[in-house]
Amino acid sequence: MSVNIPEQNLLYKEINSEKKLCVSYSQMETFLQCPLKWYKTYVEGNRIEKPQEALIYGGIIHETLEYFFKNNCSLDGKEMSAKFNSLSESVGGIPFDTPESAIESGRDAAKLFEWVIGLYKHRIPKNEFEKVLLNMKPVGVEEPFVLPYKLPIISIINGTKETHVNITGSIDLHMSTSDGKYRATIDWKSGRKMFQPAKVRDNLQLVIYAMYIMRHYNQGLPARNYWFHTRFLEPQEKKVKREDLPCYIEKMNEVFMKMYNFDSKENQRACPTPLCWWCEHKENCKHKSNYTPKEK
């Protein structure tokens, strides 16, 4: 059955001058958190941009690290701080929630820059993650990718038959040995919490990166896949093994089955949680939770 959705939807992007059905991992994560939020944002096209500390601070940390790795990992503390401050000024300053948050974030950023500069200066790795950084070379910094993925069911949207969705995004840091035989993916995380074991197990972000590298470079899966938590200077590794791919594909199929099945309206189901407090649609959502950050 064909479904008509608003023309201002955000489900499509232009790839090679052609409009195609696309999805990012962040869009998938939004759907898993709250299908109704996903529907309002991506199907109705009602994206509300509000400056938030976490997003802006995280974006600036990403760009500063990108600047470091694109400059042959040879910058000093003054150059890194200048880049961080310049990026902050370009957005009118980071909208910190509290003065304490500003102090904490400034301290965390300084520790991060000191760590990465010292690592490449002294070249003394303290763990496997640091060995990966020192023994491999960056081959992609904010590397954009498109991963075509066959949908488990055909979806007809506004009269167009969709058999595939293009998973799009960018890999923060893609490392490789000089012969290209061994690769690693790294995603910078600037949140205030490490991932719980269940999230490491179930999260599909690094799986998608690994599948892209396997297909695009016609090689095996990356040997290492990490989230690096910049506030704690701690890596968390995600093992992506070939024998586990059927399980990951099944999970992705479950997401897409619900996401593009407009007949069942499963993609409009409300899921109130403490995350409602930060949702851009909370003012107009009758399902939102009554949680406030003071109740932590």
> How many helices does DSSP assign?
9
Order of helices and strands: EEEHHHHHHEEEHHEEH
Q: Give the overall form.
A: globular
Q: Low-confidence parts lasting 5 or more residues at pLDDT below 50?
A: none
Radius of gyration (Å): 20 Å
Helix content: 25-40%
- Characterize the largest beta sheet: strand count, sense, and whether it forms a barrel: 8 strands, mixed
**Structural class of the secondary structure composition?**
alpha/beta
Beta fraction: 15-25%
Mean pLDDT: 94
Report how far apart the termini are. Answer: 45 Å
Task: Report the count of strand segments.
Answer: 8
Note down, in words, how this protein is organized:
- There is one protein chain.
- With 296 residues, the protein is α/β, with parallel strands linked by helices.
- 39% of the residues lie in helices and 23% in strands.
- It contains 9 helices and 8 strands.
- Strands 1, 2, 3, 4, 5, 6, 7 and 8 form an 8-stranded mixed sheet that branches.
- It is globular.
- The mean pLDDT is 94.
